[in-house]
Amino acid sequence: MRKFIMTVLAGTIGLWAAAQADQGAVYYEKGQQELQKGRLMVAYKYFDSAYGVNKTDVKIVGALAKSLNDLRRYPQAREKYLELEKLGDKSPETYNQLMTLSFNLRQFPDAVKYANLVRAVDPNAKVSYFIGKAHYDDENYGEATKWLQQALKEDPTNAQVPYLIARAYSDQNNHKLAMPFFLKALELAPDNNRWMYEIGLIYYALNDDQNSLKYLLMAADKGYRKDNEYMENLAIAYLNMKQVDKGLEILNEALQRRPADIGLLNMIAEANYDAKRWEAAIDAWDKVLELDKKNASALFMIGMSYQKKGEKAKGQALCDKAIELDPSLQRNRQKMEMPGM
């Protein structure tokens, strides 16, 4: 009797499992039909129902993973692709999705892991860019440049590749090595105004003032936003090229919007001082003192400006007062009083 009961129970369980599998297949087929109609959300609901009754069917789990990915529910899609891998799916498509999703979700070690698995199953797969970009975002610049150089061979038309190589070198403060790759990137994407702006700043760091100004102006011509940062850098580029009036015009316009910006006032004062416009320099540093009455550096430079304009005694007295406030200014005095300074 006990044996008969056990046999019946086993048969019942078997029938139940078969019914569940059949129900999962029904939901899966309905999901596929909705997918063909372009109804992504409805298809997802059917695939999710199929998964609810059968979590081990590779076909169902794969459809659910793809559906989640299509709906841009990337963390959940990645979880399902990981389940798919555990179920034995080692296809290039699954590894490629895991590589891409891990990369986009900033899971950089996993992105590298799955990129290498893609290469293992498909030696012709072009995944060096993903590996290099993952290493770059993980601030591993040595590995990043190695893989990005390989990516440049795999796809010489992808402007992001030389750009990232340039950034990797630039982030290591090696602007000289970075510049050829910045220029290569811009050659491949000639309308990228942000890159033009970056190139202008890198040329500034390389003390190439002519090219710095050229690329800053080029960026604006291509639509780069003329915000405060851009305008300040443009003014500096003009000043470095000895186009003092243009540089000061930009800085004075900026001062209308930011009248309490001590850094900006100091820039204006220094530009006038370097151009031997002593009165204008004094006026700017006076405004600094209005905002910060204990600014010894501004007082010292007012004193130097008076000396340069011929009022030596008055200037020396002001410098002495500044040094009383900040004794460290004493070491600048002899240098500043030299002819030509």
TrEMBL record:
User: Coiled-coil segments, which residues?
Assistant: none
Highest taxon of the lineage? Bacteria
Q: What are the record keywords, sorted?
A: Repeat, Signal, TPR repeat
- TPR repeats (start-end): 125-158, 159-192, 228-261, 296-329
Family annotation (Pfam families): TPR_16 (PF13432), TPR_19 (PF14559), TPR_8 (PF13181)
Record keyword Repeat present: yes
- Give the signal peptide, or none: 1-21
Q: What is this protein called?
A: Tetratricopeptide repeat protein
InterPro entries from the xrefs? TPR-like_helical_dom_sf, TPR_rpt
